[in-house]
């Protein structure tokens, strides 16, 4: 690969996208471009203390701001955009998490309606030690303080949906979006199927860390300084977002009910084994059944997201996605980031 072009983007408060689709591109980029990005947290930076309740400082539906979209030159429906995460670093020394009334997995919601009163709004401010790579949990109702390792990730990355759709940045689906999987960390490559000319790639929703499932609906939300390399695979279709790490291939599925999200991710993994690793469909089904890991991503968004991941060391020596993950890892190493 030739030396990549580096584009630095630091959006002003009024320059974020709130949807996938329906927003004009902020820049046109050639495949191979390195994007050095600032992304704001899901609250648009408005939850800064325990007194800042989401219902008072945020304006629905303007939640989960995205940096972008970026028009990828040459991208057409039927292609795949590859996003390699070189680095994901918290931009501040603090992060915020909350409970939100009628939102989350262990409370009544608008669609799971009961006579229970909504949970109260409560804010936790997490202190981040970026040098030591830790996030400090401070209990609200006791003197408990527990230091956890940071595991920075992006909850949201996606492209414009198909069929002229415009989707809120809060929604995960086949275009990507708010999948909230901890697998989206530095060192991985995310593959997204292109639905419109230019793909219109955006990302945001940085998390200093998040448990699988994001049970209360809110992670350790923080602004991020993130570097990605964007590449294009012509003529390669990707029906659902896929992730490749050094150790695993990972399929995602987003839907409700949860069983359908699970089925989508498992089926996509089976089809991946058939396309790139030489399995028949039934052999892939049997092999995946006995080897797959199935962590939850989120069980709280408008669609739930499940993940199906499989260790590369157990797979035949075959090339997937034209060996792009390995090439992008080499480019990232050359950047010295």
From TrEMBL:
Gene Ontology molecular functions: hydrolase activity, acting on carbon-nitrogen (but not peptide) bonds, in linear amides
InterPro entries: FmdA_AmdA
Gene3D superfamilies named among the record's database cross-references: Acetamidase/Formamidase-like domains (2.60.120.580)
Pfam families in alphabetical order: FmdA_AmdA
SUPFAM superfamilies noted in UniProt: Acetamidase/Formamidase-like
Protein name stated in the entry: Acetamidase/formamidase family protein
Source organism (scientific name): Streptomyces liliifuscus
